[in-house]
Amino acid sequence: MSAAPGATELSPLARERLAYRRSRARRSTLVAFTSTLVFAVVVGVGIASSPGWPRVRETFFDPHAAWASLPAVLDGLWLNIRVLVVAEIGILVLGLVIAVLRTLRGPVFLPVRALATGYVDLFRGLPLLIALYLIGFGLPALRLTGVPTDTAVLGTVTLILVYSAYVAEVFRAGIESIHPSQRAAARSLGLNHRQSMRLVVLPQAVRRVLPPLLNDFVALQKDVGLISVLGAVDAIRAAQIESARTFNFTPYVVAALLFVLLAIPTGRVADAVAARAARRQGWS
């Protein structure tokens, strides 16, 4: 069969190298699959042969309890997903604003920079669980007009406040990684500070910090379950209710598996984005 017009014919040595690489790739895949399968079998046999496995299987891996609790846990997971989407949008917006405020230059902006720095220091050092208790129970206790009392809303606000401190530092690192010559070139084109930040600096900064932002998003997917401490009936709270009703811990396992399934796609996207960024910079 003749080669297509314009196609480059591979030399015998190049074809031999290509065949060798393909055989090595197939071998590596086979070895990895076999070793993983053997490890899983060894772990499974070790767990199944332990003296307490029948009791653990009945308490944590009961198929009937799992199927019975699945609808309630799924309803709770839908609340977690809604909180996750709203919190992620709020975190990105607030974190970017704080990062921009911390990068302002000039003595006139010192109070603004100090306020933004204090915000980051406070919420980055405050444990999320304590922040949930303080905001979720403290704000309703003030009985202020217009302050929401819904536990899901208060939990979402807390997540936004805490995670914005971390995301702000990620954005700030990206902004400060842009070489000053980029700003100078933008100003030489007639752009003011706001225009150069919006059109030149921020697009490059966001592209550079996209992998760590996605990792924070994966962490947020797990932490949305902590809103259950406020009484919100999310997946974890629903699993707790079902467990208390049936005296079985299988609903917790169901909730855990659903959270894992929710986090796996985002984790793979984060890995792919990080690998792509590394290839762009010539690290791999």
Features:
mainly alpha; 11 helices; membrane; amino-acid transport
Describe the model.
With 284 residues, the chain is an all-alpha fold. It has a single domain, classed as Orthogonal Bundle (MetI-like fold). It is built from eleven helices and no strands. The chain has helices at 12-48, 53-60, 63-102, 110-125, 128-142, 151-177, 180-188, 193-208, 210-223, 235-246, 250-280. Helix 7 (180-188) packs antiparallel against helix 8 (193-208) and helix 10 runs antiparallel to helix 11 (250-280). The longest helix is centred in the N-terminal third of the chain and has 40 residues, at 63-102. It is flat. The chain starts with 11 loop residues before the first helix and ends with a helix. 24% of the residues are buried. The model has no long low-confidence stretch (mean pLDDT 85).
Helix and strand topology:
Elements: H1 12-48, H2 53-60, H3 63-102, H4 110-125, H5 128-142, H6 151-177, H7 180-188, H8 193-208, H9 210-223, H10 235-246, H11 250-280
Helix pairs in contact: 3-4, 3-6, 3-10, 3-11, 4-6, 5-6, 6-8, 6-9, 7-8, 9-11, 10-11
Return the structural class.
mainly alpha
Helix content: over 70%
Mean pLDDT: 85
Tell me the series of helices and strands, N- to C-terminal: HHHHHHHHHHH
Gap from first CA to last CA: 36 Å
CATH overall fold name = MetI-like fold
Strand content: under 5%
Q: Give the number of helices.
A: 11
CATH architecture: Orthogonal Bundle
The top-level CATH class is Mainly Alpha
Low-confidence stretches: none
- How many strands, which pairing sense, and closed or not: the largest β-sheet? none
